[in-house]
Design a protein that fits this description.
The chain has 137 residues and is mostly beta strands. The protein contains one helix and seven strands, in the order βαββββββ.
């Protein structure tokens, strides 16, 4: 197995570096907030009562990922959120979260809302899937 590099002085190729590692900072003293990952799917009566579409309750049939992040004592204006295809990077003055997502997402079609009374940021991301016998629409 021989890898040809454009520059002879490089010690690794860009393909060998995992996506999202540029956000990882081990020296950052901020703590990681509590978070919860939920999966959401769109079902109709034909799915619930008759099982006609072939969907099941597994994550393989879900269309969206919802991430709820607890951010106590944080204002909406203090939140910096960056979403890539496989990584969510959240930073506030007191908290930092680098989350590798379980599925690739469409980073352009996400929604985020801050629930100030619950001190929670809710991020909804559309899962990018290849079409198969379950996910065909």
């Amino acid at each position: 197995f021989q890898v040809k590099s454009e520059n002879k002085k490089t010690i690794w190729n860009t393909e060998e570096v995992p996506e999202g590692s540029e956000f990882d900072d081990t020296w950052d003293p901020r703590e990681q907030p509590e978070y919860e990952i939920l999966f959401k799917q769109c079902v109709g009566t034909e799915d619930v009562f008759f099982g006609m579409s072939g969907k099941d309750p597994s994550t393989a049939c879900c269309e969206d990922i919802v991430i709820k992040i607890k951010l106590p004592e944080t204002k909406y204006s203090d939140i910096t959120l960056d979403i890539q295809d496989k990584v969510l990077d959240l930073r506030t003055p007191k908290k930092k979260l680098l989350l590798h997502l379980p599925y690739p997402v469409n980073s352009k079609e996400g929604r985020a809302r801050f629930l100030s009374e619950e001190e929670t940021l809710e991020v909804t991301l559309r899962v990018s899937r290849k079409f198969d016998f379950i996910n065909f629409s």
